[in-house]
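Section handout 9: paired folding examples.
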Amino acid sequence: MRDIRDKALEMASKQRAISIAEFFEKNRHLLGFDNPKKALLTVVKEAVDNALDACEEAGILPEIIVEIYETSPGKYLVVVEDNGPGIVREQIPHIFARLLYGSKFHKLSQSRGQQGIGISAAVLYAQLTTGKPARITSRVKGMEAHYFELMIETKTNTPKILVDEKVEWEKEHGTRIELEIEGSYVKGLQSVDEYIKQTAIVNPHATIIYVTPKAEQFILSRATDQLPKPVKEIKPHPYGVELGRLLEMLHSAREKTLKSFLMNNFSRVGEDTAKAILENALLSPDMDPRKTTREDAERLIKGINKTKIMAPPTDCISPIGEELLEKGLRKEIEAEFYTAITRTPQVYRGNPFVVEVGIAYGGNIPREGNARVLRFANRVPLLYQQGACAITSAVTSVNWKSYGLQQPGNGLPIGPLVIAVHIASVWVPFTSESKEAIAHYPEIIQEIRLALQEAGRRLSRYIKKKVRISEEIKKRSYIEKYIPHIAGSIVEILELPETERELLELKLKELLEKKRGKIVEEKHVGEEKLDEDLEKLKKSIVEGEEHEERRGEE
């Protein structure tokens, strides 16, 4: 018995709290650092996402510089510099060298970052793989620039400040971060190059200057000076609250009555709605929320579900918009047909979201193989785990044969097609902390399907009319080609004297040429007119042909 007691005491002495930094130090794959190629992409992504969020929140058109240098085999220096508002000196160590620190976790409004992990996780990865600190320079307008060298004390999840000094910096305001990491630079569909290109598509208001490890420079200029619509923070919607969270809110409430608690802590709950909820829950409006029991909370949730409550406001999200999404596609993808759809806002678990779809077809897009699917969430490209994503499921569930494309089984359509799908929400339901795929919520999948079907109908009309125009041009080219032969053959058949023959031949050619002239002048004749007609066709499809019957859809 004594041995068992001693063992229990020994085991108890080994128990201790685990820091979040320690946890991710051993489980960095959860944050997207599971291999060198992906790690390089993740570091760039986290820094660029932060830069874009900062610029937009400050009302600044983003100008971002991304530079990657190979310092030694397998080691890369990543530099990301922005023209954002800068960071106050006291906050720099906490933002870059402390996990789960940020301003967005508790806010219900659209943003790229959500958890306060991303950039500090990149700093942690750098110190794990190269042992070198993060170097940060930042300046707030009208203040001096500050330079830090930082690492993370993993046992306590606190910043370790190695250097803190004022410096001269030519930038009026902005932030620059330098991280040396272990990585691998490879071109392809899951590369940093592709991430930068796709970021430019869904952020047409940003200018990005990108220097690759091969010393190639790419300038991706903005397509618009229009910043995304500023978003407003909203309160949680009653339909999305869960029992444990509701109990916590009730017991920490400052309000003295349940009625005022509901009105002050949830969106779309006014006095009448609060009364209806409490009547359905059989609870007193004057009850003290801090004295509620678990049974009371369960009744309150049942009362919420029985009450018809207006959908949450949508000024907390900022979709790209059809015009700008199409501009982004035109800027980065050479095609012959473009269209974009922005759906009306919908709700999942009380969270508002908007689905947008853009399509590019033909042109320089490869004609062989599957269509490319570009996935985005809150203007951020998702390059990994395509097969596990709700977006991919929605794309493959559409019957693309109805729209003039080949589709083997229930797979992706085949042909020169790029499909871009963007989801904007106050809380995107990612499947993991690395934010690479979206969970399979039925409401989200259905909205994506509806947007894809609408875009598919536009594409189908374009393909059908393009075929008709091409066939018409081909037929009329035959007429032009054989006019001289027809005139000569008629003269030979009539066997006229030489003088009359020459006169009749000239007359027939003249008549046929006049007819030919009329043909050439018609709207759809000539290769030089094809592009113009197709442009008019695209415009008419988008603007005025939505009333056509929807055929062949599942």
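Moving on to protein 2 of 2.
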Amino acid sequence: MKGFHLFSFNTLYLIIAVAFLIVPVDSMTLAEEIPKDIKWLSNTHDPVFASPDAKKGGTLHSAVMSFPLTFRVVGPDSNSSFRSAILSNQLGLIGIHPNTENIIPELATHWAFAKDKKTMYFRLNKKARWSDGKPVTADDFAYTLEFMRSKHIVAPWYNDYYTNEIEKVVVYDDYTLAVVATKAQPDLHLRIGLNPTPRHFYGELDNEFVNKYNWKIVPNTGPYQISDFQKGKLVKFKRKKEWWATNLYYFKNRFNVDKVIYTVVRDYNIQWEYFKKGKIDIFDITLPKYWHAKTKMLSVENGYINKIWFFNDTQRSGQGMWLNQDKEIFKDKNVRYAFAHAMNINKVIKNVLRNDYYRLEHGFVGYSRYSNNNIKARRFDLEQVDLYMKESGWKRGSGGIWEKDEKRFSVNVSYHFDEHTPRLVVLKEEAKKAGIKLKLQKLDQSSAYKKVIEKKHDVAWMGWSTSLRPQYWEHFHSVNAHKPQTNNITNTDDPEMDRLVDAYRNSLDEDERIGLSLKIQEKIHETGAFVPTFMVPYVREAYWRYWKLPDIPGTKMSGGLFDPFGSATGGLFWFDKDEYDKTKAAMKKKEKFAPVTIIDETYKMKSL
């Protein structure tokens, strides 16, 4: 799963958002022609990352901890982790190669840059089809503006972004278009690699959009589509038999399984039992107790189940504790600093996580020159806690907990993943030494997400998905504070932060943007509303031996080796029926295979 996640998933999903002005085909004049001096580009020469040995067939059984609140990908309750499974089956104009980071084709076969450095031209693949068989045309990209700007979708972030970043989309014919940004900017292709929206499906939007499309299966352009679902129980995806892009250069030998079934299993320990019995095919064993202890079982020792530790080198999720500054207790910066110094993260890493995890220093690690590597997270320090609390007039009260004006320093920490309880128990006991009472509030995943996105939390224990460049506006600009259904869950409302974020969004120069990015990260650190916790620069998974991976099991950006979807890194694995039959026969006869544990450091971060 991807998108908004509550520490359960660490999978990369690239979101490219744009805004533009519709220019209908019938408004085009003959004088409006594509410049003849542009250079059309394509890319079918970067290395492929799938295996030629891959086979089609089989069903991947996986599990999710809660059923999504909606199948919409915009609007209320849509920003859950399951959203990525739907979005990953929608292609854009262009993609990004997961190892070289060069542009690669998706719905467009060719692209070109104008001299103004704010316009890109695209030629669509005439074979591209929606899942209902309709052709993908330039008008589907034009319709995205109409859709994303509409107030009917109840999505302020998209309304804003799709209004302010792009000046217009020019439709030349059914298969040729241009996207014009409001200004010249670096990384233009990351701003305008937009996705189509099926006008023929939605038509004219109205006030009934949210309810009307809550459980609709929208046509898409990717390899899979939802084929069935039972609310609260499961969602099935089915591979398209005649997918138009099956033989494209970067899609060959990928997206191999016929079906993907996500079953709702609300307890992680029960998911593990399902996996051991073969009811689930793969299992994330990033948690140290699984890698080191729980996988010491006959199925692994007898070679029926394989283990893999695969290092990646990509942007790190902003995982940590997000403090709600609209809560009275956290309006005081000194109190926020004290809270950070009361969190003994390093003890959790040592005692609970077996030193397998790394300390995350801030929320934007791994973004190359855009990351401020001088920032260090506040460490556990009882003297600093004492200093900040006394400076704000707090005194130790009953049980040693800080008190002021008849209020105690007692806050709820909202989370959903039961496996994280031991980490929080350590933090709770250590925080008590610092005079802070943590009340652990475990909710199911949907309830935890809803509580946070409605800004009703004290402290949110969670992380965010990533993109190729840092995104600040949605998380830290005041326009997204003090209201529900936005990603500014700390309710940061700071004029200087707004100035920096606006300048970052509006900058025409890459070096200036990088400088602003470093300053924004300093400002976020200064605010103290985010307490970074852990960084996990790898993937660890267990899988039944009849599931196969390429020789290099993943890519530099892979956040999961058994992600069935996603144009950038998904669908590299496959099901081997012969090995399945051999495995089942061996298990029946109690025969053994050589145990397999793979440690792949091909893309291990140099700084580790």
